[in-house]
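Below is a filled-in request sheet from our internal design queue. Each sheet records the structural input a requester submitted and the sequence that came back. We keep these sheets so that new team members can see what a complete request looks like end to end.

REQUESTER: design group, bay 2
PRIORITY: normal
MODE: inverse folding
CHAIN LENGTH: 215
BACKBONE (tokenized):
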């Protein structure tokens, strides 16, 4: 499909830091499913920069329109219900960026990601970061931050989690953590085991996952 001139290519330097890290994890020429791909920034960069065979699923009609206007192969769908329709092992990577906390069934979505993809990549804001804890302690109200910018009554985020919560979910569902990147404030990136210190200091996190062979 021809590109809409109203949607020029987005440079890798201009996208969110977690998307840059995700793009670095993806091997050139691989098959990629971007779940909740929004306006297609990550898919577009992977398509042009690494020549991936990229597909996307997005719940917003506006998001689908923007993606299609960029020449991307994206369909409208709800990850909570529609991922079960994808064949097992259909992709090398199934990606979910800053969307897990908006899912009605995070556990089911995670299980589908590692089923559909040989590996899954998941990023999310960490509700266990020390600034959020301090804000709750001092103000007694749900925090509003740069990463969690909605008021409690209007947020699409319905299942906040911490890094520790996510690690526990992976353990419970037999998902292997192959790599973990912790993002403290200020644009730094730290590769560390997702323990208590990561849960305290990480503003957001990026995980490379796979289905455990013991399942």
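RETURNED SEQUENCE:
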């Amino acid at each position: 499909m021809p590109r809409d001139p109203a949607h020029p290519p987005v440079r890798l330097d201009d996208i969110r830091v977690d998307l840059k890290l995700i793009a670095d994890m993806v091997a050139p020429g691989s098959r990629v499913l971007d779940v909740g791909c929004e306006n297609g920034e990550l898919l577009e960069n992977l398509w042009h920069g690494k020549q991936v065979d990229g597909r996307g699923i997005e719940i917003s009609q506006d998001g689908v329109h923007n993606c299609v206007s960029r020449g991307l192969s994206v369909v409208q769908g709800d990850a909570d219900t529609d991922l079960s329709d994808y064949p097992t092992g259909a992709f090398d990577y199934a990606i979910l960026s800053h969307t897990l906390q908006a899912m009605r069934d995070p556990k089911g979505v995670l299980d589908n990601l590692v089923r559909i993809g040989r590996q899954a990549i998941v990023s999310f804001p960490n509700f266990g970061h020390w600034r959020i804890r301090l804000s709750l302690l001092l103000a007694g109200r749900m925090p509003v931050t740069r990463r969690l910018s909605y008021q409690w009554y209007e947020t699409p985020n319905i299942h906040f989690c911490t890094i520790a919560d996510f690690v526990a979910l992976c353990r419970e569902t037999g998902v292997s953590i192959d790599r973990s990147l912790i993002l403290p404030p200020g644009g730094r990136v730290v590769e560390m085991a997702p323990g208590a210190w990561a849960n305290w200091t990480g503003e957001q996190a990026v995980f490379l996952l796979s289905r455990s062979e013991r399942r």
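SHEET NOTES:
- DSSP finds eight helices and eight strands in the chain.
- The two ends are 41 Å apart (CA to CA).
FILED BY: M.R.
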